[in-house]
Design brief:
heterodimer, A: 407 residues, alpha/beta, B: 458 residues, mainly alpha, two-stranded antiparallel ribbon, two-stranded antiparallel sheet
Chain lengths: 407, 458
């Protein structure tokens, strides 16, 4: 159906197109289907054993960690695991089957435990080796295999470079920090001086359009001093603001309601070497805030077609260290959410926590490559074939059996 | 041909209201061999001093922390480590201010541009504790002294520098038949990282005439390169693969115990290789002149390289002597540091102001423009292609800077009608002159000049 006959039909049905909740202005753009994927990179190494605590494991108490506060906000998931109290606002999602976890997972990276290498590998989607990393990231390789994908299909949101979306497929990058406010006349004059340079003029129009879509208008008619104050506020790094998780999710949600199908952003603050009981809840609040903001920004229709995967470069040591925290480890947890998820479960081949079970006697032993879960998500959400996933998107991966993550 | 305004914009750090443009290509080049006044007036710590002072302290504190685990003394050590890191980060920010200030004040601005080019060609990044903040000391010690020398000297200085050995894991590499590997089987072994990047990035180029066997042989030849905090780079024979190794058909070492000289010999041969001349001279042309440079310009630079065994002054002279280098049409997009520093030079922003406002004026906006300071995306450094920089987000950040930061830094802004002359001179297009005069506020007038393609391109 072309646009004209659609309009005619809508009119014939007597409904106002603009008022229809199913039609947003950009939804005429070609998109590769309705499924949506959000990847949240938890930079710094999230402690899976604290977030999804295996409190039912008989060896858990011997690790010297504080257990989940079952008299407080922490809640039991399945008799084996309890969710950290700081994620209590997500309880309704868990009960609705829109939240789940994969445990004892990691990327194929062992022993050196460097954030730098680990995040690079997580985003490149390859196993550690002496060979140089590929230039492109696995999300970009996914976009290359989505029929009908355009530069609007995938968004990297935030100031950092995002190896995960780098590569030949055109994608969009934006950060709510790069918000732009100009006086109406400055907008006109800038357009005018750009006319001689088509490449810059095109980038300018996209920048103006994006700046007007992230919550506040491009044109600003306050005094120059007000404008500067507003822009300075926008330019502050999101981690310095109170609620980066919410800001990033709201922008992601707005794009995903339109033409975007893939969005990626990161949350920081997981490197809890010290005073973990004080620091981890702050990061978890960001995560919980972010997931709820995504759900609300997407609305029920789009949320129902969405999967969110929050992944980290490695887990942390099984035992508490001498400074009330944990050091860089290996296996950890992956947070899954979304209306498309078959949630309410902790998916794991649990390795146990006794001395012999721990990896190198210190870390949770990973029993599954977290890329296999990502690959099954891509298979289910976007219909990407297994051989493409195992050779191109995640080269060298054996996806193994289907964990059945999706509805 | 030569145009003083274009000389400042394309081969310098932009125009200055205070410093005259060079009168000729000869004068532009002569600046490179003149005494380095900027380094003298606006100093940056040498890498040796940084290593002896900061890195050694970090190691000592780390050892103390380890030995005092679980005691109160550990808390003290942790606190000292945190202070040391904070101090190192502060030094790193101050050095960014220094780099920009040199660009604002230099009468030999081509030196600053070449420093950035070669620092990027030999990209490194500290991966642990305070080495992450050692980027400027590395450039000051390994790159800047060699800008006007021969490429082989620069290559050896950069490739065998502790920062490079650390970044590309060379110090951990042991020859498969080295004493160390034989003593600790399965624990110590070969790492090809540096060898591969030397061939692919630093010398021959990815299309160069080398094979995986050359990578492996060069990796074996490079074994033994290591460093200490106190003494810098050293050659450790217990790590070295007994020779000989054959790289590009030529054999190095073998008739004597492994030694550093064999590594230097191989690097010198690579520096003179025709593929290196083509790759590296080509990259210079791409960086300074255009994403797709004129073929005759490339030939002239390559020939100068081969005729002089990689005398960089001869290669620069060939570039600046070629008419294609002076094509009056707008050239490459400025990279974020180029953009911000040239705006600071045109506005003549003093060092103390940049020092006070480095976060909002330099670090944060550069990150939004796509250049996270001294945090390169990989060993291949920053992209050269214009479209990597002229993204919607990158451009938005440039506009955001141009329309607001000058006013945030300076009490009184210049008249935009004068500023358009200062910043662009005879290259100011009519529509930019018009926009500067039509803006409602001085801040908007400055902003629209800085936003214009004539300013954003070199």
């Amino acid at each position: 159906m072309d646009r004209r006959s659609f309009l005619a039909r809508s009119a014939a049905l007597g409904c106002s197109l603009a008022a229809s909740p199913l039609v947003t202005p950009v939804s005429f753009a070609a998109t590769p289907g309705d499924a949506r994927l959000v990847v949240i990179i938890l930079r710094g190494g999230m402690d899976g054993l604290d977030v999804v605590a295996p409190y039912g494991d008989p060896d858990f108490a011997a690790l010297g960690r504080p257990g989940p506060d079952m008299n407080g906000d922490a809640f039991d998931l399945d008799g084996r695991f309890a969710l950290h109290g700081a994620l209590a606002p997500l309880r309704p999602l868990w009960q609705a089957g829109d939240l789940g976890f994969a445990h004892a997972v990691s990327i194929p990276y062992r022993d050196k435990r460097s954030h730098f290498d680990g995040q690079d590998l997580l985003e490149a989607g390859v196993a550690a080796s002496d060979a140089p990393l590929p230039d492109d990231g696995w999300l970009n390789r996914l976009v290359q295999h989505l029929p009908g994908a355009s530069a609007e299909t995938a968004y990297a949101i935030g100031g950092e470079p995002f190896r995960i979306l780098s590569g030949p497929a055109p994608v969009s990058r934006w950060t709510p920090e790069a918000d732009l406010r100009l006086s109406p006349q400055a907008i006109l004059l800038t357009r005018r001086v750009m006319q001689s340079d088509p490449a810059m003029a095109a980038a300018l129009e996209s920048a103006f359009a994006l700046a007007g879509r992230d919550g506040d208008e491009l044109a600003f008619s306050g005094s120059p001093g007000d404008m500067m104050a507003a822009m300075r506020d926008d330019m502050m790094a999101p981690r310095d603001r109170n609620r980066p998780g919410r800001v990033l999710a709201e922008f992601a949600g707005a794009q995903l309601r339109d033409a975007a199908r893939i969005a990626c952003y990161s949350l920081t603050g997981w490197d809890t070497h010290k005073s973990q009981e004080r620091h981890l809840p702050r990061s978890l609040e960001q995560l919980s805030d972010s997931l709820l903001a995504l759900q609300s920004a997407l609305g029920p229709e789009a949320w129902g077609k969405t999967t969110v995967a929050a992944v980290t470069e490695f887990g942390r040591t099984a035992r508490w260290n001498g400074t009330g925290g944990t050091d860089h480890g290996t296996g950890g947890a992956m947070v899954l959410a979304g209306g498309a998820l078959r949630g309410g479960r902790v998916v794991t081949d649990w390795p146990g926590l006794d001395d012999g079970a721990l990896y190198e006697g210190r870390d949770l032993r990973p029993t599954r490559d977290l890329r296999t879960h990502l690959a099954w998500l891509l298979h289910g959400q976007f219909g990407i074939g297994r051989s493409t996933l195992e050779t191109t998107v995640f080269p060298g991966l054996d996806m193994g059996s289907d964990p059945g993550l999706l509805l | 041909m030569f145009d003083p305004v274009l000389a400042d914009i394309r081969f310098g750090c932009g125009r200055s209201p205070r410093i005259a443009a060079p009168g000729s290509a000869r004068e532009l080049l002569a600046g490179l061999t003149a005494p380095d006044r900027m380094a003298h007036i606006f100093p940056i710590m040498s890498f040796d001093a940084f290593s002896r002072d900061m890195v050694a302290s970090a190691h000592t504190l780390g050892r103390i922390r380890h030995l005092t685990r679980g005691t109160e003394a550990e808390e003290l050590a942790i606190d000292q480590i945190r202070r040391l890191k904070r101090n190192a980060r502060k030094m790193q920010s101050e050095w960014l201010v220094t780099h920009v200030t040199r660009r604002v004040n230099s009468q030999t601005p081509l030196r600053e541009r070449l420093e950035s080019f070669w620092a990027d060609h030999f990209t490194t990044r500290g991966k642990t504790n305070v080495l992450a903040e050692a980027g400027s000391p590395y450039v000051e010690s390994a790159i800047r002294p060699h800008l006007a020398g021969r490429f082989d000297e620069l290559l050896i200085a950069a490739v065998t520098h502790p920062m490079m050995l650390h970044y590309l894991d060379q110090h951990a590499s042991a020859g498969p038949n080295s004493p160390q590997a034989l003593k600790y089987p399965g624990k110590k072994g070969l790492n090809e990282n540096l060898a591969r990047e030397v061939l692919e990035l630093h010398t021959l180029g990815v299309d160069g005439p080398y094979t995986q066997t050359d990578v492996r042989e060069l990796a074996e030849l490079l074994t033994g390169l290591a460093f200490t905090t106190e003494g810098g780079t050293e050659f450790r024979r217990p790590l070295a693969e007994p020779g000989p190794e054959t790289v590009l058909g030529k054999s190095y070492g073998g008739d004597h115990p492994a030694r550093l000289k064999d590594i230097h010999d191989a690097l010198r041969d690579l520096a003179r290789h025709p593929a290196t001349a083509r790759h590296v001279a080509g990259k210079l042309a791409v960086h300074f002149v255009a994403d797709a440079p004129n073929a005759d310009l490339l030939r002239a630079m390559e020939t100068a390289w081969l005729d002089t065994d990689g005398d960089l002054m001869a290669v620069y002279r060939a570039m600046l002597g070629h008419p294609a280098a002076w094509d009056p049409r707008p050239g490459n997009a400025k990279q974020p540091l180029d953009f911000i520093a040239s705006a600071c030079r045109a506005l003549d922003i003093p060092q103390y102001i940049l020092g006070k406002r480095f976060g909002i004026a330099l670090l944060q906006p550069m990150r939004l423009m796509g250049q996270v300071w001294q945090t390169p995306p990989g060993p291949d450094g920053l992209p050269e292609a214009d479209d990597a920089w002229l993204t919607p987000q990158g451009l938005a950040a440039r506009l955001q800077w141009g329309f607001t930061i000058p006013q945030a830094l300076l009490g009184a802004l210049p008249d935009p009608r004068d500023f358009v002359e200062t910043a662009l001179g005879s290259r100011a297009p009519a529509e930019v002159r018009f926009a500067a005069s039509a803006a409602e506020t001085r801040a908007d007038g400055i902003g629209v000049v800085l936003a214009s393609p004539a300013f954003q391109r070199m």
